[in-house]
Design brief:
- This protein is mainly alpha-helical.
- The protein has one domain.
- 62% of the residues lie in helices and 4% in strands.
- The protein is built from 5 helices and 2 strands, in the order H-H-H-H-H-E-E.
- It has a two-stranded antiparallel sheet with strand order 1-2.
- Strand 1 and strand 2 form a beta hairpin.
- Helix 1 crosses helix 5 and helix 2 crosses helix 5.
Length: 111
């Protein structure tokens, strides 16, 4: 069983992954491939974590490993740039927006 993963570490990694994908905008083909991979990973994230979750739960899912996400990237043939782990990070960053305790780039108190 994986132990908790520090949310601040996860946020840093995820934001870096998102930035790497966004820097691909000047190369439409690479950007489309990266976005396709990110979207596929997010589809799987929805299955794995459900529709109601908190940021910490997402970080804990990340701590369990992202081999499954990297496999999605490889299966789609989008593993060249950026690397599969970076694409997974970008997907987690985007999925974070759906966390019940995260809004506008910051954690919010949950009652």
């Amino acid at each position: 069983m994986a132990t908790g993963y520090p949310l601040q570490n996860a946020l840093f990694q995820w934001e870096e992954g998102h930035g790497a994908v966004e820097r691909l905008r000047d190369d439409p083909r690479a950007y489309r491939g990266a976005r396709r991979a990110v979207d596929a990973i997010r589809d799987e994230l929805r299955k794995r974590i459900g529709s109601t979750f908190q940021a910490e739960q997402l970080a804990n899912l990340y701590a369990e490993g992202i081999d499954w996400a990297e496999a999605i990237v490889v299966r789609l043939g989008a593993s060249s740039l950026p690397d599969p782990a970076t694409l997974a990070d970008a997907a987690f960053w985007q999925h974070l927006r759906g966390a019940s305790d995260y809004a506008g780039g910051r954690r919010v108190a949950v009652e």
